[in-house]
Design a protein that fits this description.
3 domains; nine-stranded mixed β-sheet; three-stranded antiparallel β-sheet; D-Maltodextrin-Binding Protein, domain 2; elongated; alpha/beta; binds arginine; MetI-like fold; 487 residues
């Protein structure tokens, strides 16, 4: 028992250390623009020519006139610009929780939004337009023809509100404009509401879309700033004023539109897609491996602690261990991720980066499964082994360490291997909060190429290679360990 409680204490201390250190570490890299000289921009880079992904010199970059404006603001502040790309409806919470300092995303300063954030002066105006497939060119001459129709809109945008006002319309609200375009191309929706500046990028034969019913309704764009951050608000307005007086904004729009014009590469086969975007996938592999490796390490630590708790003599500790396993195992990892990433930030101000939130979620989650595996292993070793060791004069600790645990470990190695493989695959869930892993990069490639299949087939192949290598390595370890049995 002494051994168990000593380890329990050590591991508990480690956990306490980790949980206190992690938020501090993230606080050190905060987004506060005073002092650290970093200006964090939140944007939804699916909105060419405002902001979009483009491969320049083989590297994925976020460009567009919103981004150029952000760079001007950062330059005026003498700060370094950091861009956080996320779903459009995640921008307001990100700004409020302090994850980003400002939002430039073609965002219209509506009264609703003004309740929760402040806006700069407006810097651009556009109009609403309905996009339809070329084949349907003459089908929807007026807004009234859209009644009862299937319409795609961006989640959280003013277009969603407009769509909700159309009687009987069946709305599909999605994160990214490119997803809506895919829906339109694949006949899942028959119209999409977007802004004319953005629609311009899709209106060609490659995509096969046509504009219809230009609406007179205006959509202005302004920069979102956290309420009360007047210092930044004034600086932003100052920069906008300078740009307007230099006629620079029109120039930036023209430049961005030119960049946008050659953004689509059609008809690439899977090998061409892979070759052109290999650097994207390479980055993704790096993050997936980092995420999984740390998830495994901390997962094992947590698993050991929980396993020790579950086997403890003190019933309250046993109860805590059981509760942990049941709760974590009984709730989806996606929900856990949302709580750790958004919940903690909005409720307690504990702001984790996507990488940190990912590691924490994966560790907590796999810890529960690993704890059960460890417990099964230890309990699977015949009691007689322990008793024999004790009767030979071994202490309980030594008996555990030299007799029980090695046998337990060998017995559950295949199950542990399964769990590691699962962690690599499940880490793809973390991509929803903008963690740049393989899955995330596959979506980026999909958004750039408008291909729905190849980017994900490539991702599948990469995941398969990773997990296959891992299970080969584990198989080898297993054989090595069982070799000693046959001696
Ligand atoms: N102007 C619209 C709005 O504020 C749409 C903006 C969408 N922006 C984007 N980056 N996707 O709701």
């Amino acid at each position: 028992m002494k051994l168990i409680s000593r380890y329990t204490m050590m591991l508990l201390a480690l956990v306490v250390l980790l949980t206190t250190v992690a938020p501090v570490a993230s606080a050190a890299g905060t987004t506060g623009n005073s002092g650290s000289k970093k200006l964090v921009l939140g944007t939804s880079a699916d909105f060419a020519p405002y902001e979009f992904h483009k491969v320049i010199d083989g590297k994925d970059q976020i460009v567009g006139f919103d981004i150029s404006i952000a760079k001007e603001i950062a330059a005026d502040l003498g700060a370094e610009l950091v861009i956080e790309d996320m779903g459009f409806d995640g921008l307001l919470p990100a700004l409020q929780s302090g994850r980003v300092d400002m939002v430039i995303s073609g965002m219209t300063p509506t009264d609703d939004r003004r309740q929760s954030i402040d806006f700069s002066d407006t810097y651009y105006k556009s109009k609403q337009v309905i996009m339809i497939r070329n084949a349907d060119k003459d089908k929807y001459p007026t807004m009234a023809d859209l009644e009862n129709e299937k319409i795609g809109v961006q989640k959280g945008s003013i277009q969603e509100t407009i769509g909700q006002g159309i009687p009987g319309a069946k709305l599909t609200a999605l994160d990214k404009i490119s997803d809506i375009v895919l829906q339109l191309q694949t006949n899942r929706v028959n119209a999409a509401i977007v802004e004319d500046t953005v629609a311009a990028g899709y209106l060609d034969d490659v995509i096969g879309l046509a504009p219809a019913i230009p609406d007179e309704e205006q959509a202005e764009a302004a920069i979102g700033i956290r309420k009360g951050n007047t210092e930044l608000l004034n600086a932003v307005n100052g920069t906008l004023e300078r740009l307007k007086s230099e006629n620079k904004i029109d120039q930036l729009v023209t430049e961005a539109s030119q960049l946008m014009a050659d953004k689509v590469k059609k008809d690439q086969n899977i090998f061409q897609v892979f070759w052109e975007y290999k650097s994207f996938y390479a980055t993704g592999v790096g993050y997936t491996l980092l995420l999984s490796a740390l998830g495994v390490i901390f997962g094992v630590i947590i698993g050991l602690i929980i396993c020790l708790l579950r086997l403890h003599d003190v019933s309250i500790l046993r109860w805590i261990g059981t509760a942990y396993v049941e709760v974590i195992r009984g709730t989806p990892m996606l929900v856990q991720l949302m709580i750790i990433y958004y919940g903690l930030a909005l409720t307690f101000g504990i702001t984790f980066s996507p990488l940190q939130a990912g590691i924490i979620t994966l560790s907590i989650n796999s810890g529960a499964y690993l704890a059960e595996i460890f417990r099964a292993g230890i309990q699977g070793v015949d009691r007689g082994q322990l008793e024999a060791a004790r009767s030979l004069g071994m202490g309980r600790g030594a008996a555990m360490r030299f007799i029980v645990l090695p046998q337990a470990f060998k017995a559950v190695l295949p199950a542990i291997g399964n769990e590691f493989v699962t962690i690599i695959k499940e880490s793809s869930i973390i991509s929803v909060i903008g963690m740049v892993d393989i899955m995330y990069q596959a979506s980026v490639v999909k958004n750039i190429t408008y291909q729905g299949m190849n980017p994900f087939l490539i991702a599948a192949a990469i995941y398969f290679v990773l997990t296959f290598i891992l299970s080969k390595l584990l198989g080898r370890l297993e054989r090595k360990l069982s070799a000693s049995d046959r001696r």
